[in-house]
Amino acid sequence: MTNRRLYIAAILAVSLSACGHVRYVPVREARFRTETARSERLQLPLTAAGREKLLAFLRAGGDSDRIGNTLVDPAAETHYGPLLDRLAASAPLTLEDLMEKRTLRPWLAGRVLRQVIDAREESPPAISPVAVGDGRYWWIFYQHQKRLVELLVTLSAEPRKPQR
Amino acid sequence: MHERLLTSLESVADVRLVAALRHEQLGFPNEKDLRVFIPDVHLIGEKRLIEGEFTYATNHPELLTSVLGALAGLRSQAASDETVEVYQLGDFLDLWREAPQPDEPPEVPARIKDDHQDLIEAFLDRRLKAHFLLGNHDFDLYRWPDYAGWERRYYLPDAAPGAIVLHGDYFDWVERLPAPIKQIFVYLFSPRVAPSDYALGPMRALALQSHAGRDYRTRIQLAQPAPIGSLRSPRAEGVPPEWNVQREGVADAANLTFLDSAYQECLKANQEFGLSLKVAIIGHTHHARIAVREAADGSLFTLIDCGAWIENCQAPEDAAPSPNAQIAALSGGEARIYQLAPHLTLNSATSG
Question: Are the C-beta atoms of B334 and B242 separated by less than 8 Å?
Answer without folding.
Answer: no
